[in-house]
Amino acid sequence: MSETTGASYAAAGVDIEAGDRAVELMKEWVKKTQRPEVAGLGGLGGFAGLFDASALKRYERPLLASATDGVGTKVDLARRMGVYDTIGHDLVGMVVDDLVVCGAEPLFMTDYICVGKVHPERVAAIVKGIAEGCVLAGCALVGGETAEHPGLLGPDDFDVAGAGTGVVEADRLLGPDRIREGDAVIAMASSGLHSNGYSLVRHVFFDRAGWSLDREVEEFGRTLGEELLEPTRIYSLDCLALTRTTDVHGFSHVTGGGLANNLARVIPDGLHATVDRSTWTPGAVFDLVGKAGNVERLELEKTLNMGVGMIAIVPADSVDVALTTLADRGVDSWVAGEITARGDHATGAELTGDYAR
To answer: Which NCBIfam families does the UniProt entry name for this protein (predicted)?
Structure first.
């Protein structure tokens, strides 16, 4: 280009027209997430998303809860596989299932998609996945931002993040103060790796084992890439159903840090959570990460969810109702442990025994 030619945004690598087309393509998916509180208010393309807060008048003392998250290096697998319409499920799950831990109903989300170059159909596919996740979570997608960062990201590179808001009645707020000695620890099965530990997983399978994404893995019954891209399970509506059918004392979303560390975050001083490994068998992917990378069990457990994506803590006499509620909703769950008085040597939560085989 001649030095006398005027500079432009397009010449710098930002395509505004492509961004506009991406917005048009995603509108139909965003519309599917509408709740009554957002219907007819603005719409996609405005400067801010709107939510009719008069819906909160039915609460005596509504507490708003907020959470934000991303999906980490799992986006690299989506990029390499050219599959963009599932990563949004992961994003929604990471956000709304943090909200529901305190008993909050997810109300709405916004997203942020950062790309090296706007490919309208690709961006729309990402938003489609986010919208589908919002439907599964019962919340509205009220807006977002797509940013084009040429020079910082490659043409096919992207990242996603999101923020969500929920509401809970003050006297229904869940937290460590509700946990009691004798409570049961109920585990809810994960759909796989979910969205945590992918830096370790990618290092093990690609750098150490030298596997390719299209490698057929007998233990999975599908390719490595298909297994690794399995979407995160979204538990928010399942957890809210539990709060309606039984006296839930607490939840723990099992994400980065593993089961014991995340469970410990909701255990109060003076009490201790014990989880028995023999009550379940982790999926094949967890075993293969360990074997392919020679990763010690404790390292796996503090990095991956090991087959448990959410924990509910309920009174012992509520176990049957809780398990029935989850079974009716298609959630595989089981009693995995209990809450006991804490000894001087005990930590907030620990895993005991060996996994079932």
So the answer is: purM
**pTM score, whole prediction:** 0.91
Q: Tell me, what amino acid is at 312?
A: A
CA distance 188 to 332: 6
Q: If one looks up domain 174-350 in CATH, what number appears?
A: 3.90.650.10
On whether the 12-42+56-167 domain is CATH 3.50.90.10, my answer is: no
Q: How far apart are CA 218 and CA 224, in angstroms?
A: 10
Over residues 173-182, the pLDDT tens digits come to 999 999 999 9
Residue spans of the domains in the chain: they are: 12-42+56-167, 174-350
Task: Calculate the dihedral angle through the C-alpha atoms of 259, 356, 207, 161, rounding to the nearest 10 degrees.
Answer: -30
pLDDT tens, position by position, 127-137: 999 999 999 99
Q: How does DSSP classify residue 49?
A: -
